[in-house]
Amino acid sequence: MHINIHSSWKKRLQSEFEKPYFKDLMTFVKHEYATQTCYPKKEAIFNAFNWCPFDQVKVVIIGQDPYHGTGQANGLCFSVNEGVVHPPSLRNIFKELESDLGIPYPVSGNLEPWAKQGVLLLNATLTVRAGTAGSHQKPGWEIFTDHVIKTINDQKRHVIFLLWGGFAKKKAKLIDTSKHTIITSGHPSPLSANRGYWFGNKCFSKTNYQLEQVGVNPVDWRLKKDA
């Protein structure tokens, strides 16, 4: 299976691509895409890396696995394609943005503009079978994405890691907090948000404050406000 990934990542991850587990993973993914409906589209699997080159990474948001509904996933965690109805977690992300930074609720749920500013929108599992959440979690994606987190940790400084919910918080053990900043909160899913674990966390303003402290341009979190 062809690995369509930005050259800045390829040179840092090439040794991982050659490991037996990754070759087995690609065989599994190739077979799944040939025999099942899977998301995102094959050419979008590595979009998180293609929209956000390694040298530009300044914020990392970690999701679990892609949306499994028709046409939703676009290779960036929490993001959906243009024109797709916003899933509940994304709605809550936008509501928090609105209350935190006064940013109007956007029409587009496509988070590419964030990625292009250095926000790596990384799902721990990069593919999923249609209608079956977590269906591709076992074959090795998490070994790969944990390695990505470790590579960022080892080779960069002053990156902000946003760990939303219990699953993402487990990745904290891969991050050296003497070099990087971790900002945690509950997950934006309705289950967590409605219990008071998400709203009011101000993670977006906190992120920009931390970036400014180390002389890095803050993220412009605004998205398309009109169709």
From TrEMBL:
A Gene Ontology molecular function term of the record: uracil DNA N-glycosylase activity
Alphabetized UniProt keyword annotations: Cytoplasm, DNA damage, DNA repair, Glycosidase, Hydrolase
A matching Pfam family: UDG
Enzyme Commission designation: 3.2.2.27
Enzyme class: hydrolase
Domain of life where this protein originates: Bacteria
Catalytic activity: Hydrolyzes single-stranded DNA or mismatched double-stranded DNA and polynucleotides, releasing free uracil
Subcellular localization(s) per the UniProt record: Cytoplasm
Keyword DNA repair appears in the UniProt entry: yes
Gene3D superfamilies per the UniProt record, alphabetical: Uracil-DNA glycosylase-like domain
Domain Uracil-DNA glycosylase-like: 50-211
InterPro entries with a match to the protein in the record: UDG_fam1, Ura-DNA_Glyclase_AS, Uracil-DNA_glycosylase-like, Uracil-DNA_glycosylase-like_sf
SUPFAM superfamilies: Uracil-DNA glycosylase-like
CDD domains assigned: UDG-F1-like (cd10027)
Keyword Repeat: no
Main location per the UniProt record: cytoplasm
Residue numbers annotated as active site: 65 (proton acceptor)
Position of the signal peptide: none
Function: Excises uracil residues from the DNA which can arise as a result of misincorporation of dUMP residues by DNA polymerase or due to deamination of cytosine.
Family: Belongs to the uracil-DNA glycosylase (UDG) superfamily. UNG family.
Protein name: Uracil-DNA glycosylase
Gene name as annotated: ung
